[in-house]
Amino acid sequence: MIELLEILIISIVQGIGEFLPISSSGHLAVTEHLFKRFGQPLTGSETDFIKLEILLHFGTLIAVLIVFRQRVIDLFKKDFRLIPLLIIGTLPAVVVGLLVKEFVPWIETNLYIISICFAVTGIFLIRSRNIDGEKTCSAMTWFDALVIGMVQAVAILPGLSRSGSTIVAGLFRKLRRDEAAVFSFLLAIPVIGGGGILELKGLLKPNTDPDSPAVHLLLIGMLVSCAVGIAALVWLLDWLKKGQLWYFAVWLFMMCPLTLVLAALPLHEKQKSQSVSTFEENVQLSENKLSKYEPTSSLPSDKDTVTTQTDSLAAAVGNVSESGRENMSREDAQLEYEKILAEEEAKEQAAIAEEQQRIPLVDEPDKLIPLDPKDRIWITPDGRSVVILGRIALREGFLELLACRIGTKEHESIISVRVKPFLIHAALLAVGAEPGKPVQQTPQFIPPSGDEIEIVIRWNDSDGHRKEVFAQEWVWDAGNSKEDSKKAMSTHWVFTGSRQYKDESGGNHYIADESGELFGLSNFVGAILDVPIKSSADNAELLFACFTERIPERNMPLTLILTPAKNKKRE
Q: How far apart are CA 249 and CA 118, in angstroms?
């Protein structure tokens, strides 16, 4: 989570740098690198900083509107002529800003470029020495506005001060110092506001991290940037009446070599050595990400590969710790990881090969209709049921799912299957099941709906005898029975059909494929089957748990048979 102190520092830098002719973007990049280079990288996620950046933009926008409130009002009462001039001055920045964001976003954090731009801004400020015109904003021409606008567009580069560049450009176009400042900061209203709006798309990125900063901390940042911005703006306007912009060049000429040095500094020692604790943090982070569904984040299509790598990394960490080489170098740790990864990959391929040889536990397996050449899923010859192969993943603990895709939520699911979720969905459609709708939580709770689906589980015990149960028999209804008088779950599953969502580029994503949630016991919008009752996904309120006494040992192969209840009635 981004810390309050970090928010305050960034907000102050933004508030001062946005209005003083020293470049807020350049100083923000330097601030971030200072944290990173000396072993204390900023703690927030990309989404956290996108949110903060948007609010800081609007904080400084409010500062401009407050300080220049009378001039803004006059724009719509008597200075109508200024409105088209402001539009002309804004257009170049809009075009250049969009191009930079799209094609060269790395420029915004490149310290070498920032260092050069600091020096250029300083030279620009010195060139304004002893220049003062007589024109007011009302006397400006469209060409004056275009020149200032083009200078503002170039000032998109970090390290080039927007305010300093546009004020100096105004001075060269014979504006009075105070009037050049007025036009510069009126011009900032659409630019700063547009910059915030441009970043709003970043808020579409999911952020389900429980450590995400509270809204009130982000609002504090906005208020601080606004207050500091007002103070900086008022001070600058007063300074321009009696002082010169070129004094700020001294600061920029000092920042130029300091930024170069910062760019060339080696990484902090903490970042050079990749200790086991860092690997363990990465493993935990990977596991957390894989155990949650993030709606607009597109996970790799081959989820099994991702999980194999995560498990391998965890194994590598354990191997390193047991060997007593906790402080091994990053290179050695990487070799250790690659070795374990290769071993795990071999095991994974062996497991796949073994599963390819398994025969479903049905009466006439040779007559089953396969749906995929690799995934183990069939339709029965009569077209009434779906057959899937799986394994026992969990025997103890509370549950969120009856079944999940392998490599996803085995720590919360009794069964894992190596079948792509969309194939299960398609198979249920093929046998005549009608999907309903996933759970709706807001503005009011609406339970999942759809055709009822019967799930039968078959397996061979250690003596080779075939066993068969309804899936409910393996689920303890912990919400309605106590440990000393356990009752099996009586609720049935319904075919909700999961759902799709669109990413930022307009592409469709099937949630079940990415989350791995197949047959739910807690209300998930991504599950293909779910229980049509209110069942919380909050760990403290889970209703169902493993009926351990009835579940075979872990990794036991089994066959799942899914039949729409209406097909059973037809029989």
A: 9
